[in-house]
Amino acid sequence: MNSLTSYPEPSEPSAAAGDDLVSPSQAALPSDLTAIHHQLLTLLRAPGQEGAWVSLIDGVGRRIRALVERDADMALYLQVQSAQRVQDHYSSQHALFCAVVVDLCLHHLNVGDAERQSAALATLTMNLSMMELQNELIHRERTPTLDQRRVIDGHAQAGAQLLRQVGVQDPVWLEIVELHHTDPPPETGFAALSPTQRLASVVRRVDVFTAKMSSRRFRAGMPATLAARAACLGPDGRPDVVGSAVIKSLGMYPPGSYVKLASGEVAVVTRRGVKANEPVVASLVGRDGRPLAAATPRDTADRSHAVAGIVRPAEVRGPVPPVRVGVSDRL
Description:
alpha+beta, Hypothetical protein af1432, five-stranded antiparallel sheet, 12 helices, 5 strands
């Protein structure tokens, strides 16, 4: 395994994209992520109740980053597909989704391994003090009560204090949690921020971006392109440093999202492409609106199969198991 600081960038797909056999290590990734989420959920529900809680959550962060290193596209595919469904354990699933994206963004920004680990741990625990409330709110249509709003507004500081109480001593981890909902002054550019403020800025932006992509009981999640427009673009319609890192790390159409092709077919994105607007896809629905007998790889660099638009997840009967589209050979 390569160093955690050297993720492979998206590569040019082969002529037989989607037909190659997937290695056992890739095939195991979905079940690995499920096991990681189960451990994360257990730890977040009972902070500090195990003597080695800090060490255990540190291990979860390292396992997530190792899986992203192994196959970032598969990790993204699974998290994007999961976010498109209303989840019983939204808070922990959201933390896991954020941790995957944060680490990819920090790799793009050339952040060192130690800082990336601290950022991963902060991302996993940023909503520790309001986990149950967060899970409750995604199933409710009405706005939070005054008391709930107080909890939401104070959860960053409360979370950092709770982490201190259970033995966290990493100052970068703690400061990111404290700052992850604090916007720096508008006139302060990214380069002028302290190193920890930069990390918090990435976590904050990814938090917003992934939340907009995630479905609630009374609100469908946004397609990635619309979420990016809302979370990553400035008033001038251009992404800033952090917004650009998010878009370049995930592509315009992240794995797991759905697109309409110039041919009229509907496809699911399976991997990022060399160009942000040319992802690797597999068509699911033909131009006549009927499901294809089998998912069919398409080359979006070919004008006849170029991405022509986005498709909202609610318009596709999903989720689409990775085995069906050649992302993995088994669940």
